[in-house]
Hints:
The chain has 174 residues and is an alpha+beta fold.
Amino acid sequence: MAVLDLLYYPDEKLYQVSAQVTEFNSELKQLVDDMFETMYADEGIGLAAPQIGVFKRIVVIDTVGEKKKEDQLVLINPEIISSEGKTGINEGCLSVPGLRGHVDRFEKITVRAQNVTGEFFEKSADDLLAICMQHEIDHLNGKLFIDYLSPLKRNLYRKKAKLLAKERERLKKQ
Ligand code: GNR
Ligand code: NI
């Protein structure tokens, strides 16, 4: 088990499109475990593999945060197969620390995905879980919540993110 390093905006690698997972082996299980540990260490409710520099279509989610097996959701090669309604909240992202922004999302979705052993399943969700799933699937397609903001706001966020990144570097060196 290990906490992995995150990529931070404006790292261009976050804009890469991730590849389908084709091998469901022990290496994948280890990666999923490490992704949960990394997500919990940063108090996130979800994490996508590209955020740790692994460009594969793997997502882990736990919107409860009590580290219980029954709350943990693993989505491999997820696809939204149906959606309805509109919702939206001020979203945050572990790769864009310190900033939040409103994103329009579907209120309810059904996702088809594979589990860690490669079996297909479908999962319907609403509220925060549906929002989180859409946020994570966006990561797999190289999209961040800030890309939904107006160009003006995005530019402001880019500047703020660069300042925050400098501050993080400064604190690391202390
Ligand atoms: O921890 C997270 N919180 C969150 C809040 C509102 C909307 C989406 C999210 S996902 C985020 C973790 C993250 O960055 N996942 O990619
Ligand atoms: Ni995110």
